[in-house]
TrEMBL record:
It holds the Pfam family Cadherin. Its main location: membrane. GO terms for biological process: homophilic cell adhesion via plasma membrane adhesion molecules. Residues 1-23 form the signal peptide. Gene3D superfamilies: Cadherins. It is a single-pass type I membrane protein. This is Cadherin domain-containing protein. InterPro entries: Cadherin-like_dom, Cadherin-like_sf, Cadherin_CS, Protocadherin/Cadherin-CA. The chain crosses the membrane at residues 790-814. It comes from the Eukaryota. Keywords: Calcium, Cell adhesion, Cell membrane, Glycoprotein, Membrane, Repeat, Signal, Transmembrane, Transmembrane helix.
């Protein structure tokens, strides 16, 4: 065998080979285990280097090898080059598992005087010595082998190991003793000196012959004589079930008397099995493949094999019982043997009759239709008795309600139908014919047989329930299983096979599986249209003719939440009295849901958009209550939305618009506008005709309906007999002519009572002063009165002149100062910034000061004069500072469009009706008015405009710099031809407008809502034309502070 070499050894061998070509290589062969200092040879002499050996200055040494140093094992004499062993060399240690053991050395020869130096390769071969014997890991091995193993089967055993690995002294062979055993041996050597043994079965094994083998395996190496090692192998042959039980006799014969009692032992059989364990345990039984009479007459003990009598034996002439007995072992796959046991019965007395029954129509079974008539034959009975005399006389009988036994001949009978048959009541009858002889004592025997009743199709199918109750969810898919019906038929065979059908009137609802009876939806059901349906199901058998049964399936359609709630009306209107306490009931919502169950349970609620907006609460049951007391005069109707939601899954809801009207409660007293304090005098001309209307009482009531209908009456006074009043209109009539001149300038006092028509009327009282004047409309003043009037006129004229002069001087001074500032303070940066701001179209107006806003004028007119361009110029010229603009500003915001002429007419002065330039007291000429005019709009109460009531939104903020933003009417840029004008005239629109403060800093700003209520218009002049200056008296309410103001509108 090739020995595996390591890489360093290969390298050394190559080096030695190369050196041997050019150098004198020295080889030595020595045995292992030589003692120390054993001489090997003289290197110089053996190398034939005579020139070197003659020199005395040469010194010798072993060179160290870089790959594997073997110099450790040897030493050399440095003067003589004698080579010897340094230690005892064990080949199995230094060359383990190698066939050849080679040491490669180098001996150096150098001069101690000159430069001579040379190396001599030395190869030492270590020869093996047979110093190791084969050894086994274990001295004994137990090996079980089945007796059923095939010839040639091998069993692996761990072999011996020999430390000597040379080809000569390594393991060579194995021997098996005794050689007569049914086994052979083979082995395989491994590289490491170990081996594997294979024990081969060379012959068939039989445990019943040899159950155990004691073998010895001997291992030998290649020495002379060889060294050996032994292994004891104990082979046990294991059993298989390969032996049948064996009876001790091939046949057993026994004779017994017929009167031997039950339980008596007839004979005992014995069998043996040569296997071991459960394979050798034997049990006994009667073979099942023999007549029933034998199995019923005898029994056997399975362990002992004793055969005993199971029932009384009856003697018959020539009759012999032949039993088959089986013996079997208890293996997983048992083996069985059989033997015969013959039992002869001896006649020892009277024997019972023997009955022979022939069944009709076949010998296998008696069958007859359930429609068979009475007297029909089902069987023939023949009786025999081998006894003689009275012992042989036999009488037979049959006990049955449906069949009878009729004598046919001597000892012969026929079995007939004695009553109508019904297979459904009883499908078979077990009949027993009993016969007894006349012996003493009499002996009897019986024979039983079965009569099967043949079916006729005389029963229709019947359902397990007369009515089936089931349900299905509405909107279920077509093909959904609804229920399963089941019918049965008392008949059998083809008469019992049933097919299911749906009555033709119900096929549009369901279909049915004809075999299983599964009822399947044939449409989608809508519970709101049909809450339940009744279906007729038929069951038809396959008899000839076929019979039919029916049942009814009542299907309840289960509700699904597929219907939204519906309010009783789409427009819900409710009424509630004003002034009721918080929590008062407004009404109750009502809605329905076509679903049912929880899907129809409704909860009401207020729409989310109205929660916190309207003063009402909607409870889940639909009750609506007021969260606070209501005031019809503040708001008489509320619009809201309510929601009805069901409890389905998912929930469905419906929204309804609801209007709640606040019904009037007579909680307001009539308000008398005339007469009232400061305006309570009525002037009646002297000599007015009786019956004339001299005036009217003006009164209103904030309530509605009957509560706001007023009744006018006069109370006590010195003129109650002179004047009368219309109780409905309040018109005052003169009843008596005032013809006495003394009554001129006389004042009459009349108490005026104004009451409403409420259930509990409320009334107000005022005093009317009636002054009689002359025909020209004046009273006859006294001298003192004339003097006082003169003084008042002089004072008023003087004050007017002084104020007018002061105003004119002030205007001139301000105009001169403004002109200088416009020239000197022109700033390009401010102009560019304002250009970008005003190009977007805002019109910004400074709020006038309180002095200018409420200046004393005849009608307290307030004029805001500003224009886009002029305000811009004013800011650039320093007339309006950024602080002023940022402190209080009003923004003009159009509400809806309407055109007006581009030129604004000057309002006429209070003293003239000229159409030219007039001094209206507003501090400007026509040019000033055109350059600083304010868009003004007509009031709602103006008969010519028809525009809605005007509201101003006034905003105030902290005095911080801000960028102004506003919305203004559209302006038209002037043409190039009007360049001489200082600014363009805006194309004004007659539109309602509101002034808004645009807060630049939301965190520090505060917004005030300003409402300006306008009274009826009056004109500064008497022209009543559309062009003029109108004044509107009213009040300005700012966060609860009420101020009387008036506004002027340019029309």
């Amino acid at each position: 065998m090739m020995e595996r070499r390591t890489f360093p050894q290969i390298v050394l061998i190559l080096l030695v080979s190369i050196c041997s070509c050019f150098c004198n290589t020295v080889e030595y062969h020595i045995q292992e285990q030589l003692p120390e200092n054993t001489s090997i040879g003289n290197v110089i002499e053996d190398s034939k280097m005579t020139t070197v050996s003659a020199r005395s200055d040469i010194r010798y040494s072993l060179l160290w090898q870089p790959v594997q140093d073997f110099a450790f094992y040897f030493k050399i004499n440095e003067r003589t080059s004698s080579l010897s062993t340094a230690v005892v060399i064990d080949r199995e240690t230094v060359c383990r598992f190698m066939n050849e053991c080679t040491f490669l050395l180098k001996v150096s020869a150098k001069s101690s005087l000159d430069s001579f130096f040379q190396t001599i390769p030395v190869t030492i071969f270590i020869e093996d010595v047979n110093d190791n014997r084969p050894t086994f890991a274990k001295p004994n091995v137990e090996l079980p082998i089945s007796e059923g193993v095939l010839v040639g089967t091998s069993f692996t055993i761990e072999g011996a190991t020999d430390e000597d690995t040379s080809e000569k002294f390594s393991l060579k062979l194995y021997e098996l003793e005794p050689k007569s055993s049914p086994f052979n041996i083979q082995f395989v050597k491994n590289l490491d000196g170990s081996s594997i043994i294979k024990l081969l079965v060379s012959q068939e094994l039989d445990r019943e012959k040899v159950a155990h083998y004691d073998l010895t395996i001997i291992a030998k190496d290649g020495g002379e004589p060889p060294l050996t090692g032994t292994l004891s192998l104990n082979v046990t042959i294991t059993d298989i079930n390969d032996n049948y039980p064996k009876f001790n006799a091939t046949i057993f014969n026994v004779t017994v008397n017929e009167d031997k009692p039950v339980g008596s032992v007839v004979v005992r059989v014995t069998a043996t099995d040569f296997d071991e364990g459960k394979n050798g345990e034997v049990r006994y039984k009667l073979s099942p493949h023999q007549s029933t009479d034998i199995l019923e007459s005898f029994s056997i003990n399975e362990t002992s094999g004793e055969i005993t009598i199971a029932k009384i034996l009856v003697y018959y002439f020539g009759r012999v019982y032949t039993l088959i007995i089986e013996a079997y072992d208890l293996s997983d796959q048992p083996l069985t043997s059989q033997t015969f046991v013959t039992v002869n019965v001896l006649d020892t007395g009277n024997s019972s009759p023997e009955i022979n029954v022939n069944l009709l129509p076949s010998p296998d079974a008696a069958k007859i239709s359930e429609y068979a008539n009475i007297g029909a034959v089902v069987a023939h009975v023949a009786v025999t008795d081998d006894d003689t005399g009275r012992n042989g006389e036999v009488t037979c009988s049959l006990q049955s309600n449906w069949f009878g036994l009729q004598r046919y001949d001597v000892n012969e009978y026929k079995v007939i139908v004695s009553k109508s048959l019904d297979r459904e009541l009883r499908e078979s009858h077990i009949l027993t014919v009993e016969c007894h002889d006349n012996g003493s004592p009499p002996l009897s025997s019986s024979s039983s047989f079965e009569v099967q009743i043949l079916d006729e199709n005389d029963n229709p199918p019947r359902f397990t329930q007369q009515v089936y109750y089931t349900s299905i969810a509405e909107n279920s898919e077509v093909g959904t299983s609804i229920t399963k019906v089941e019918a049965f038929d008392l008949d059998i065979g083809v008469n019992k096979q049933i097919s299911y059908l749906v009555d033709t009137a119900n096929t549009n609802y369901v279909i049915i599986d004809s075999l299983t009876g599964t009822v399947i939806a044939n449409r989608r059901f809508d519970r709101e249209k049909e809450s339940n349906i009744t279906i007729k199901i038929l069951a038809v058998d396959k008899g000839n003719p076929s019979l039919t049964g029916s049942t009814v399936v009542i299907v309840t359609i289960l509700d699904q939440n597929d219907e939204k709630p519906k309010f009783d009306t789409s427009d819900i209107r409710l009424w509630i009295k004003e002034n009721l306490a918080a929590g008062s009931e407004v009404g109750r919502l009502s809605a329905t849901d076509a679903d049912q169950g929880k899907n129809a349970i409704l909860n009401f609620s207020l729409h989310l958009d109205y929660k916190g907006v309207v003063p009402f609460t909607v409870f889940a049951d639909g009750l609506i209550i007021a969260e606070r007391s209501l005031d019809r005069e503040k708001q008489d109707v509320y619009y809201l939305k309510v929601v009805a939601t069901d409890n389905g899954d998912p929930k469905l809801s419906t929204v309804a618009n609801t209007t709640i009207f606040v019904e009037d409660d007579n909680d307001n007293w009539p308000e008398i506008h005339f007469p009232k304090e400061g305006n309570d005098t009525l002037y009646v001309p002297y000599l007015t005709s009786p019956g004339s209307v001299v005036g009217s009482i003006l009164a209103t009531d904030s309530d509605s309906g009957e509560n706001c209908k007023l009744k006018f009456e006069f109370g006590d006074g010195n003129a109650s007999n002179i004047f009368s009043i219309n109780s409905v209109t309040g018109d005052i009539y003169l009843q008596l002519q005032i013809s006495n001149p003394q009554h001129i300038s006389k004042t009459f006092l009349v108490k005026v009572h104004v009451s409403d028509m409420g259930m509990v009327p409320k009334s107000s009282v005022a005093t009317l002063k009636v002054v009689v004047v002359s025909q020209n409309g004046t009273t006859l003043p006294s001298q003192e009165t004339e003097r006082q009037n003169f003084l008042i006129a002089v004072c008023v004229a003087t004050i007017t002149i002084v104020l007018s002069a002061g105003i004119i001087v002030t205007i001139c001074i301000l105009r001169r100062l403004d002109s200088r500032k416009r020239t000197n303070n022109y700033d390009k940066r401010n102009r560019a910034k304002l250009d970008s701001m005003f190009d977007k179209g805002p019109s910004v107006f400074s709020v006038p000061s309180n002095s200018s806003l409420y200046s004393e004028r005849k009608h307290k007119e307030t004029t805001f004069l500003a224009e886009n361009g002029n305000l811009k110029e004013a800011m650039l010229n320093g007339e309006i500072t950024d602080a002023q603009v940022g402190h209080e500003v009003l923004c003009l915001e159009p509400l809806y469009p309407g055109d007006v002429p581009s030129k604004i007419d000057d309002a006429p002065s209070e003293t003239s009706h000229d159409s030219g330039t007039g001094d209206s007291g507003k501090g400007g000429s026509d040019e000033d008015l055109q350059n600083t005019s304010l868009n003004r709009v007509r009031s709602q109460n103006s008969e010519e405009s028809g525009l809605p009531f005007r509201q101003w939104s006034y905003s105030s903020q902290q005095s911080q710099p801000t960028q102004l933003q506003s919305f203004s009417p559209r302006y038209q840029q002037p043409s190039s031809s009007s360049s001489s004008q200082s600014s363009f005239v805006p194309q004004q629109k007659i539109i309602p407008f509101s002034f808004k403060k645009v807060p630049p800093y939301p965190k520090t700003s505060r917004t005030l809502n300003v409402s300006l209520g306008m009274g009826p218009p009056h004109y500064d002049d008497d022209s009543s034309k559309s062009s003029g200056f109108q004044s509107f008296d009213g009040s300005l309410s700012v966060e609860g502070v009420k101020m009387d103001v008036s506004s002027d509108i340019v029309v």
